[in-house]
Amino acid sequence: xxxxxxxxxxxxxxxxxxxxxxxxxxxxxxxxxxxxxxxxxxxxxxxxxxxxxxxxxxxxxxxxxxxxxxxxxxxxxxxxxxxxxxxxxxxxxxxxxxxxxxxxxxxxxxxxxxxxxxxxxxxxxxxxxxxxxxxxxxxxxxxxxxxxxxxxxxxxxxxxxxxxxxxxxxxxxx
Length: 174
Known about the structure:
2 domains, elongated
């Protein structure tokens, strides 16, 4: 069903979504999980906001089971940060936050910092919070963490949580 269903209509997307839920529910082998993730990856490039949202939301649910398969769609997920719909941007940010690890932290932080320059005011606080949390958790060096926090403060100073400047002072002193 999952490989032969047309996804150009809502009925086809509903069937595909149910296939994904079935794969998740039976806790199938990694090949089936990859199939489910790839179906959801196709949802992310759909023009319909609801389908993109469902794709992002379900990928976040799968993050614990198969983060490696989701990493293949990282570029598309990051592109969703530019979506005009704020609910899609928020889900994409949550998913990017889950995708960051020590091997991709530099690349994803660079993407998030680039996005921070153009982000809407109502989105900046959440974005700066996620960036600071990611660098605190996965920063390869103290210098990288310090430089990133300085960039965040420079770009979105008034939208940064109160504890961030204190964290910067501690990093520079110790």
